[in-house]
Specification:
Order of helices and strands: EEEHEEHEHHHHEHEHEEHH
Pfam family, one: ABC_tran
Number of helices: 10
Number of strands: 10
Protein name: ABC transporter domain-containing protein
Number of domains: 1
Largest sheet: 6 strands, mixed
GO molecular function: ATP binding; ATP hydrolysis activity
Keywords: ATP-binding, Nucleotide-binding, Transport
Radius of gyration: 18 Å
InterPro entries: AAA+_ATPase, ABC_AA/LPS_Transport, ABC_transporter-like_ATP-bd, ABC_transporter-like_CS, BCA_ABC_TP_C, P-loop_NTPase
Strand order of the largest sheet: 6-7-8-3-9-10
Helix content: 25-40%
Shape: globular
Amino acid sequence: MSQSAELLRGEKIVKYFGGLAAVNGVDIVVRSGEIVGLIGPNGSGKTTLFNCLSRLLPIDSGRIFFKGRDITRARPYQVARMGLSRTFQVIRVYRKMTVLENMLISRQWRGETLLSMLKPSHPETERRARELLDFLKLSHLINEQAGNLSGGQRRLLEIGMALMPDPDLVLLDEATSGVNPTLIEEIKDHIRELNRTQGKAFLLIEHNINFIADLCERVYVLNYGQLLAHGTPHDIMENEAVIEAYFGA
């Protein structure tokens, strides 16, 4: 797949909760090899849009495509099996399992059944888990229960779990939330390295504007569920509507 080929496309996505349009007619595109940002004030619909794109939520209208296939009615595990992984705003790790066990169980994102998950891991699966933990600088914690990790370490672990199925696109929901500045720089470096060496594409929800500006080629801005702006980080920083809505000026 070429660098310019589309991986993910959302067309006129609408999602209602009761009478409220949490996402209202949003168009979004992520191409192969891109790092794209998604920003907006609290309650602007960012996570709801993520949930729609990853098929955790049904949409009320619009269409969603991944690798050219219509996934509008696909189930989350089917989309994961196609190569789309994600993290969550509230960290989702198995706190009473070890770091390595968390990585191994995340192979279910390829759509494995519960029965197959309970079988011993294939040596190749464990090798990949150990390599990713080494890459994320978590290998020294491999036998530690996930609940004993710091918030930043759990964020890194969740990113590792999302990477286990070797996805083409990773949706990261506030990967720097609650993370100390040193680990934020590590997360940034990991994303950049995965993008450069493996061609991984990323769609990032972030409140850390510097993080977005340093990494992203393009940025989408939501406000009240609608697309407020779209452009380069520089364009977004200079957009008066964005400054008013997002930065509170």
